[in-house]
DNA sequence: CTAATAGTGTCTGTAAGACAGTATCCA
DNA sequence: TGGATACTGTCTTACAGACACTATTAG
């Protein structure tokens, strides 16, 4: 039994305090002119991750090191593509400050779209995107991954804005500051500060060496009934 | 480009206070007579999850409802199978009290093997198994999944034994009891008790409705330096 | 000066770790 | 009665949530 294997990307970033996903408009059938996730076929002798990296740079020109990239899940329902039996390996990419998208070869148009206001998507891409968003939301709790949405140097307020955008929540600035700066390995002070803004200059930080947050930074405190 | 797609299973259970994985001995080349994860090719018009369920029951005769089954990750390095380009979708299955394995059609022999003492495995199965074990260990922290290792009715001590086996750690019985019984939705008392054991009878519990543990049951308290 | 943002300090409730003590079975 | 296991209670410490205050810039 022969399958076609594709790689699809859930690319997320934070623009204007809103979580956004990159969508492309399909130029060819099926689902011609519909919005879809960027992606493409895996080449012979190409590793899955390499294919994802290739798609990432084709879509945004971004380097692999500048973004966080991880495998999300694989989708292979028999009828998901009308042309043939296609199994797609979805990857999740978290990007800092969004560069203007430039259309790739397969895509007529590419655009950052707020996840709160998504159009209908081709194939089962709505489901895949949903899974990617939920993965990102969950990972902010127990991993320092929020820094992947930030530029190389960032302030605590910028980091907090990422959490607020991804979770659609408001966080207490004082408590967040304490949490972010005291959690070992989360952020590293650079000694430098911002300047030119309206208020007191803010310290600039870099992504720390930690791979997990201990203790985690939990979302909604559920009613402890 | 045509790929073959297989499904491989990381099946875990707890036997005699040790975390064990099901391994099969390969009957055909490549890697003939080597240990490997149970798995097989995905059939035409078969969903990936259906293929995993099929393999699960072929190997152990276990019903889908009696176990926890979730997608783990997908592995598709070009040279991972010498025969052809094979992409494998790995699934993680957590099973209660281990039934004696019976060999399937592809497998000459099947055996539960302690994960602390694994043999060399065919293909990249060692890596897949490692990823599965780590996933299970991590999920016990923030999900009520430990109950998947238990029979339908279980005591708090049995549940604690699962944690201790999977984490290779010792937990305080009193504190664990408090944590397990007060975390909302983790376990539900049945009113019934064990009998015939050496000490005081223990209350029997059932898996609760919660899908996440709030707050989580964290592993190793890292040195809060 | 005022407005605005950054950062620090304090109080309080909750929950985890440590550990003592009580309850209920079997032999 | 003794041993073994199940369960409950208390104390201490750590940390999250709430909120008041000080610090440093631009205009």
TrEMBL record, chains A, B:
Keywords carried by this UniProt record: Hydrolase
Originating species: Dactylosporangium vinaceum
UniProt record similarity statement: Belongs to the Nudix hydrolase family.
Protein name: NUDIX domain-containing protein
CDD domains per UniProt: NUDIX_NadM_like (cd18873)
InterPro entries: Nudix_hydrolase, NUDIX_hydrolase-like_dom_sf, NUDIX_hydrolase_CS, NUDIX_hydrolase_dom, WH-like_DNA-bd_sf, WH_DNA-bd_sf, WHD_NrtR
Keyword Cytoplasm: no
Domain annotation Nudix hydrolase: ranges: 1-137
Lineage: Bacteria, Bacillati, Actinomycetota, Actinomycetes, Micromonosporales
Record Gene3D superfamilies: Nucleoside Triphosphate Pyrophosphohydrolase, Winged helix-like DNA-binding domain superfamily/Winged helix DNA-binding domain
Keyword Hydrolase: yes
Domain of life (superkingdom): Bacteria
């Amino acid at each position: 039994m022969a399958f076609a294997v594709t790689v699809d990307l859930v690319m997320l970033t934070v623009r204007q305090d809103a979580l956004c996903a990159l969508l492309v408009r399909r130029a060819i059938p099926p689902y011609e002119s519909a919005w879809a996730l960027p992606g493409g076929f895996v080449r012979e002798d190409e590793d899955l991750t390499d294919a994802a990296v290739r798609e990432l740079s084709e879509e945004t020109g971004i380097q692999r090191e500048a973004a966080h990239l991880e495998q999300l899940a694989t989708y292979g329902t028999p009828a998901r593509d009308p042309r043939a039996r296609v199994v797609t390996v979805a990857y999740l990419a978290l990007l800092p400050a969004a560069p203007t998208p430039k259309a790739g070869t397969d895509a007529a148009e590419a655009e950052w779209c707020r996840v709160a206001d998504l159009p209908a998507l081709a194939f089962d891409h709505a489901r895949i995107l949903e899974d990617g968003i939920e993965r990102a939301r969950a990972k902010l709790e127990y991993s320092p991954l929020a820094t992947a949405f930030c530029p190389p140097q960032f302030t605590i307020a910028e980091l907090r804005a990422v959490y607020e955008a991804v979770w659609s929540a408001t966080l207490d600035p004082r408590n967040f500051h304490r949490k972010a700066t005291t959690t070992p390995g989360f952020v590293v002070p650079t000694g430098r500060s911002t300047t030119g803004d309206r208020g007191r200059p803010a310290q600039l930080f870099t992504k720390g060496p930690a791979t997990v947050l201990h203790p985690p930074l939990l979302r909604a405190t559920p009613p402890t009934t």
